[in-house]
Amino acid sequence: MTVVPAQQSGGSGGTSGLYDVIELILDRGLVIDAFVRVSLVGIEILKVDVRVVIASVDTYLRFAEACNRLDLESGPNKSPGLPEMVGEITESGARGKSKGALSGAAQTVSDAFKQAREESRSGDEEPAKRSRRTTSRARKEEQE
Amino acid sequence: MTTYIYGITHTGHPALPEGMGGIGDPERPVRVLRHGNLAALVSDSPEDLRPKRRDLLAHQSVLDEAGAGGPVLPMRFGSLAQDDQAVLDVLDELADHYEERLRALEGKAEYNVKAAHDEQAVLHQVLAENPELRAMAEANRAAGGGTYEQKLQLGERLTNAVQAREAGDGIEVRRALEPCAEAVSEGPEGSGWLANYSFLVRRDAADGFVAAVEELRKTQPHLDVRVNGPLPPYSFVDLGPARPAADAAQAR
């Protein structure tokens, strides 16, 4: 599966916090005509992070496989569509998510940013995109 | 020496992060330029400023620090003025506009919300709601996964069903959270989430907003909802007299 709840991806909270809001820092905020802006050439790669479903043969096969696995996990004698079972599974999914989500929502991002900043100060000279790739890779490994 | 601008606030702000480490390596200390009722948070800029992780974080941290004490209009990352005087000239020229914005954003912060489908959960939901798809899935499974054509056929139907949910779920996210916010702004396009919204939330109503997010997660368990905030109100500063298109062209 390639659609993974991003909260499960590894890495420090600070770093993932920055990636979550990077498009705001780069695309929103006050712009003043009299000032020039630093060139952002090369940074577009940061925003390539497709999570919506794209209709393609690959997606079709992936969903069919995922669906197949879903059924097998549910046991051979159970209909995968029984409502109580859907409830059960999604409920446990929600619990897992709420946990990560609670800490994400309740904690101010400022702490996370400070943390990430200290990390970056300890000699990390890499541009942001490098870390992004690492994160994606970690996420991919997690899925496998 | 070029001057880097982090944001604009008013001189009555109680805790400006003067002297805090800003962009660059070594970090350039944050300075405050005052003109009338307005103050600009600036620092010197390194000559080779690039959008590196440490500099993006520095920009965000300075604004975060300042935003905790009072309203700040955050600049987009990477704004450079020829010198300090050029910043003061802009404060003078656009004073009324900035003062109005600072009043409007007093006591408010941005919360960015992104949502994506949890694939397993959304497939379960699609199957639960569609007996025909369920039957196809069962038949395929009974046949050991089905032929390539059968897989494609099932996969296409599933994809369509999931896609159809994306738009509806995006609207649902907005509808669930909008009542707890003063304003809402759609996030930049192309970031690939089924929902990417920024909400302007009163700081004294932040608990209610967070509770609404929790409620949304409970009622829509097939959604993976991520919240970041409180943030400087990047999406609510107005573009002022600038021309966004021209600016984008310049940035490339």
Automatic annotation (TrEMBL), chain A:
UniProt cross-references to Pfam families, sorted A to Z: Gas_vesicle
Major localization listed first in the record, in broad terms: other
InterPro entries given in the database record: Gas-vesicle_GvpA-like (IPR000638), Gas_vesicle_GvpA (IPR047870), GvpA (IPR050530), GvpA-like_CS (IPR018493)
Keyword NAD: no
Transmembrane segments: none
Renumbered residue ranges of the record's region Disordered: 72-144
Alphabetized GO MF terms: structural molecule activity
Basic and acidic residues bias: start-end ranges: 114-129
Record's keyword annotation contains Nuclease: no
Keyword field: Gas vesicle
CC annotations in GO: gas vesicle shell; vesicle membrane
Family that this chain belongs to: Belongs to the gas vesicle GvpA family.
Subunit structure: The gas vesicle shell is 2 nm thick and consists of a single layer of this protein. It forms helical ribs nearly perpendicular to the long axis of the vesicle.
Function text: Gas vesicles are hollow, gas filled proteinaceous nanostructures found in some microorganisms. During planktonic growth they allow positioning of the organism at a favorable depth for light or nutrient acquisition. GvpA forms the protein shell.
Name assigned to this protein: Gas vesicle protein A
Organism the protein comes from: Streptomyces longispororuber
From TrEMBL, chain B:
Keywords, sorted A to Z: Gas vesicle
GO annotation, cellular component aspect: gas vesicle
Primary location class: other
Taxonomy, superkingdom: Bacteria
Pfam families found in the cross-reference section: GvpL_GvpF
Localization per Swiss-Prot or TrEMBL: Gas vesicle
Record-linked InterPro entries: GvpL/GvpF (IPR009430)
Protein family (similarity comment): Belongs to the gas vesicle GvpF/GvpL family.
Protein name: Gas vesicle protein
Organism, as annotated: Streptomyces longispororuber
